[in-house]
Amino acid sequence: MVTNPVLIVALILGINITYVSMFTLRLILVIKGKRTAAALLSTVEVFVYLVGLQLVLNNLSTPIYMAAYCAGFGLGVYLGSRIEEALALGYSVVQVIADTVNTNLPDQLRASGYGVTVWQGEGRSGPRLVMQVLVKRSAEKKLLDSISAAAPKAFVISHEPRHFRGGFWAKLLEK
Fold first, then answer.
1. pLDDT tens readout for residues 18-39
2. How many angstroms separate the most distant Cα atoms in the chain?
3. H or E segment at 129?
4. Which DSSP helix (H) or strand (E) runs through 140?
5. What's the pLDDT at 42?
6. Residues 161 and 93: beta-carbon distance below 8 Å
C-alpha cells in the first residue's frame, strides 16, 4: 500500500486524468456508432475508475486527495477532448460559398481528390457558387487550407453528418 502523500496525490491525479480521458473517448465512440470499441474501452475505464475512487474513499479525511481527484477530472476532460481532436474520427461536410461564380475552385478540389457538388446560389450582392464537399475529419484542415489559398474570400461552414450513403464517397468506401 502506498503511504507517501505526494505519491498518493500524483496517483489520484494520474488515475483520474486517465479515467476521464477514457470516459470522454468512450462517449465519442458511442456517438460515432463504434459500440464494440466503446464496450471494450469501458471495461478498462471502470477498472481505472474503481482504483482511483478507492484511493480517495480510503483517505476521506485528507482534503488534498479530494482536490487531486477533482483536478484530475478537469484535466481528463481537457485531455480526452484533445485526444479526440487528434484522432479526428468520422467525416465533415464542408460547404463553401465563393464570392463569384467564375472560379475554378471546384476543379482544383476535384483534382486534389475531393468529391465536390456545385450549384449556383444568390447572395445579397449577386450570384454565388456554392460547393459541398464530404471529407474525412482527419483531412479537413488540409481541405480548408486549400480553400483559403484558392478563394480567400469564400464563406466556409463545416459540420459533421450523422449518416450518408451513395455518391462519390460510397464508391470509395466499397473498395
1. 999 999 999 988 988 889 999 9
2. 73
3. strand 126-136
4. helix 140-150
5. 95
6. yes
As a residue count, the chain comes to: 175
Residue 121 half-sphere exposure toward CB, CA atoms < 13 A: 16
What is the SS3 assignment for 168? helix
On whether the CB atoms of residues 91 and 137 are closer than 8 A, the answer is: yes
Task: Kindly report whether the global pTM for this prediction surpasses the value 0.85.
Answer: no
For residue range 36-75, list pLDDT tens digits in order. Answer: 999 999 999 999 999 988 888 888 888 998 899 999 999 9
DSSP reduced 3-state for 94: strand
**Coil vs helix vs strand at 62:** coil
Check: CB of residue 72 under 8 Å from CB of residue 121.
no
pLDDT tens-digit readout, 144-160: 999 999 999 999 999 98
Three-state DSSP state, 144: helix
Give, as one character, the DSSP assignment of residue 58.
Answer: T
Q: Give CA–CA dist 132/117, Å, rounded.
A: 5
